[in-house]
Specification:
Layout: E1 2-4, E2 9-13, E3 25-28, E4 46-47, E5 63-66, E6 74-76, E7 84-86, E8 90-95, H1 102-109, H2 112-122, H3 132-136, E9 139-141, H4 145-184
Parallel strand pairs: 3-7
Antiparallel strand pairs: 1-9, 2-8, 3-4, 5-6, 5-8
């Protein structure tokens, strides 16, 4: 069964702050995520706690969806990532229904077919931007929690495999370059 995202969640915009180099609260921007939309952990922009409205702090399970720009990706925030707020490039999607898991939504948002859908929604301007009402109408396929958990597990394994493959390729490249360098020394 397909249900509009707005019936399962609340959707709000991220916030604009003037970031500083070193403070307590991470100010998440698109540059803090890799090409697959995974948080890289390398935060270089922060907000002083006294500068921000506490209601802007992300909560466990909040989904950040990049709705502006050429990369539309979703990522699920966990408090273990440290205190953070989302910049205005993101929509903050908060699950309100017990029938859906945040990680499931972020997984289906990152599927190629859905990425193409979001790209089409944002087309037509110099900087693509998805409207909140268009995102709210996105049809989410509602399946059992057990099947959602299976999809999340499969996605996690897939992501780990990609990371391992990238590490292996990097090591092979380094090995190749080392061998060629040694063999070409007089």
């Amino acid at each position: 069964m397909k249900i509009a995202l707005k019936l399962l969640t609340t959707i709000q915009f991220g916030n604009y702050y003037q970031p500083v180099a070193d403070a307590k609260v991470a100010y998440l921007q698109a540059k803090h995520f890799n090409e697959q939309g995974k948080f890289n952990g390398e935060v270089d922009s922060y907000i002083q706690p006294k500068q921000l409205n506490k209601s802007h702090l992300l909560k466990e399970g909040d989904i950040l969806f990049a709705g502006k720009g050429f990369r539309n990706f979703a990522w699920c925030y966990h408090e273990s990532d440290g205190p953070a707020i989302a910049s205005s490039i993101f929509f903050i999607i908060r699950v309100t229904s017990p029938d859906i898991l945040p990680e499931y939504i972020s997984t289906i948002f990152n599927l190629p077919a859905n990425q193409n859908h979001f790209q089409r929604l944002g087309a037509g301007s110099s900087i693509p931007s998805i409207r909140k009402n268009e995102l709210a109408e996105f049809p989410v396929t509602l399946i059992s929690i057990a099947n959602q958990k299976k999809i999340i597990s499969i996605h996690d394994l897939y992501t780990k495999e990609l990371e391992l493959n990238q590490s292996i390729m990097q090591l092979k490249t380094e090995l190749f370059q080392s061998v060629v360098t040694k063999l070409t020394k007089p």
